[in-house]
Design brief:
The protein is α+β, with helices and mostly antiparallel strands. It has one domain. The chain is 21% helix and 33% strand. It contains three helices and five strands. The chain has a five-stranded antiparallel β-sheet with strand order 1-2-3-4-5. The two termini are 24 Å apart. The relative contact order is 0.20. The mean pLDDT is 88.
Length: 104
Amino acid sequence: MPAYLPPQWFVVVEALTAKGWHEVQNDIPTVWWSLYQVSFVRHEQQVVLSLLTEPWSDETRPHAWAIGASRTIPTDRAAAAVLGSLTLGRGWQQSVTAFIGLFS
């Protein structure tokens, strides 16, 4: 787990577990566009959450920008958000339920 995860990450994970999702794999190897990835399962469905970096951030000092969702471990930034994404900026709280509804 990275030293710093934004508070939005924990809100999304808590909302997922409340819906019956269970963490099955964490610390999935990442590349510059993803700071952290975790896989969850529920009713034989999988979702992988990826903490995405800002597209324009410095690779040596990446900044969390969004949480992306995919059904499999993504191979690139676009694949990491194929099911949708939750931008971590202003108003993110109002979008958590809709974001989780994209893959629940």
